[in-house]
Amino acid sequence: MLGIVVSGHINFASGMRSAVQAIVGEQPQLEFVDFLESMSTDELEAQLLAAKERVNSGDGVLFLVDLYGGSPCNRAINLLLQDPNVEVVAGTNLSMIVNAALEREEFTLRELTDCLANGEFSQIKDLRQDLAALSQDDEDETDGL
Fold first, then answer.
1. Residues 6+ apart with CB under 8 A from 142
2. Tens-digit pLDDT profile for residues 58-87
3. More confident residue, 2 or 140
4. Which domain holds residue 87?
5. Of the candidates 75, 116, 81, 78, which has an alpha carbon nearest to the alpha carbon of residue 97?
6. Closest Cα partner for 91 from 58, 110, 113?
7. Which one, of 124, 127, 60, 57, lies nearest residue 93 by Cα?
8. CATH code, domain carrying 97
9. PTS EIIA type-4 domain spans which residues (predicted)?
10. Three-state SS across 8-26?
11. d(CA 54, CA 29)
12. Residue 103 confidence (pLDDT) above 70
C-alpha cells in the first residue's frame, strides 16, 4: 500500500488529521507533519524523512503539501530528488487527502499522483453552475411524457 505524508504550515497537517479521521477513521501508513513557527526547515525535513520511513512499505510514498513553493513543499522535493519512489503534490485539500487514502490501493504511486494533480478527485465546484445544471435536468425531464 502507498504511504502518504501530509504536511503544511502551522497546524494544517494536524487539522487535516482530525478531519480525515472523522470522515474515514484511522488510516494505516498515513502521517501528518506540521511545520511550526518554532521549527527550522532542517527540523522539518528531518520529520518528513522520519514520517516517510514510517509509512513506506516499498510501494512508494506520496507527500501531500499545502502550498507550492512553501517550506513543506520544498523540503518534500528534497526527498523526492533523493528517492525515485517518492512523489509530491502541492495545493492539498481535505478531499484530496481522503480520496488518496481511500484510493491508494487501486493505483500505483505515479497513477495516484497524476489523478490528484489533474483534479480527477476534485471536489472544487461552482455550486451556482451545479444547481443550474440540476435545474436544467429537471426541466428536460418534465418536457417528456
1. none
2. 999 999 999 999 999 999 999 999 999 999
3. 2
4. 1-141
5. 116
6. 113
7. 124
8. 3.40.50.510
9. 1-124
10. EECCHHHHHHHHHHHHHCC
11. 7
12. yes
